[in-house]
## 1
Amino acid sequence: MFQFQTKQPQENWKEEYLNVGFYALAGVKLHLLFGRTYDANITALSNAAYYPEADNWAVTQLFAGLGEFAGKNADGKLGVGMLASFAIETGLKWRVGENLYLYSGLFFDCGLNDPTKNKREPVSNFVTVENLPNLSLLAFYKHSVLMNAKIKLRLSLYRPPKSLP
């Protein structure tokens, strides 16, 4: 993570306009994921095909995977994995004591890889009638990405450098 922050003076810091600064940081985080679980709830699936040359909708050919299918619920564990995410954060840096700072800000994380891709069924497994009843993994068929946006509070201790002789 790379951080930028405005400088706050060491003397006269108790004056109200000198005890607030700005900070921003950005970078990449690596997460080691343990005990990942998923829960997929699909109430129903409706497949249809449109043929523009005949201006006709096909909805009843079950052999082709078209029609109404009842949903299914599933849950499970995905095992251990590694996730990389891009993170940005910005906010205010408050000086609350001589050597104590409070950072208050907003942050956003966005995943760069999909840690569940090797645990899901491929999309091609859902195109036949035999496989359509297994709808439980359709929620994960394309791409799972971590996205996180929150408010963050952080305390920081500052230890001034010793003066050089």
## 2
Amino acid sequence: MKNADYFKHKKITVVGFGRSGLACANLLSDLGAQVSITDNQDNPATRSNAAKLKPGIKSELGLHSRDFIKERDLVVVSPGVADTSGPIIWAKAAGIPILSEIEVGWRLCPAEVVAITGTNGKTTVTTLIGEILAAAGKKVFICGNIGNPFCREVSKMQRGDFVSLEVSSFQLEYIHTFKPKIALILNLSLNHLDRYRNMQDYLEAKKRIFRHQDQGDYLILNQGDPLVSDLAKEARAKVVYFSQGQGLNSNHAAALAATSLLGIDKDLALRVFREFKGVEHRLENVAEINQVTFVNDSKATTVDATFWALKNISAPVILIAGGREKGNDYRLLLDLARKKLKAAVLIGEAKDKISAVLADFLPVNRANSLEEAVNLAFSKAAAGDCVLLSPMCKSFDMFQDYEDRGRAFKKIVQDLLKKES
């Protein structure tokens, strides 16, 4: 690792006890920092992570206390922590530098970084770039917001390796030196209005991915998205555009643009595209029961993501949607929903808001659990239909994260398959 001594002997508090917080705390402890970690949630997930901490790391669950921020040299913030959180407010008031987990990983990283952001498609493109590089014989780490924290992998990296790194707008808020060799912005649409006041604030967060790039770096932009392509005028890096066409969808075109800059043969990339089986929890075929197909799209936490899913499913759809509200405008789904949806089953905190949009032209049912929703959807399906879990919402009202929700859906479907067999 580079700069390993930078964190040595520093007093550092990590805010947020998810996977990235756990990985960052353990890494900093290994580097000789005096580490504390705080999370206002006390639940099975945070207690499980607390059990995985290295000896000597001080932790608190179920609250944030000022003592965990006082006299710290640094505060590291996890992606889900809002600016209104006590530790962030206290750190700013005390003039304590605040870093994101990817900033910590970047300062230590000796490898070449390809960073991917956007509203939709990040995980797929991040995975495709990683698989193309691996197929070319490169040592590559696929990590970031994809579920594998940067700080968990950085100690294994060496000069000459590559990182395909998915980064969210949240992770970009507290970067200070993060400077990927290649940055990709896939697309931008209204999202996270529970976090950002408006589209401009969201855009400003995304733009930070190329903030520190220079003429030796590359910025890849979606030519088909005016909001994204217009960012070229603000870039110091060399700008490259991608666009779908000639048999390539936009995700393929983005991955091809990035790997071409790294000298990877196009034919090899095309072979990876042909063999790619998709990303778990993104339009993942789970099972077919009595000629009804069940599809897990739990990663779809935006209206745009569900819109894309519906466009790519030809069968009539019974949609399972809902979860924690994040400021989505569900009216954006209306025209396509009229054509594609046969019925909807809604769950979670957002079910009433979604119902208000869909119920005028579509049979809508509410369910108190995902299991109840799956069974209701199956009861409404006929041979040739598709039951699609594509929530358009966060998972945190009912599940640990979208992966937890997706795994629960798959288990329910598999249990239903056994019952119907």
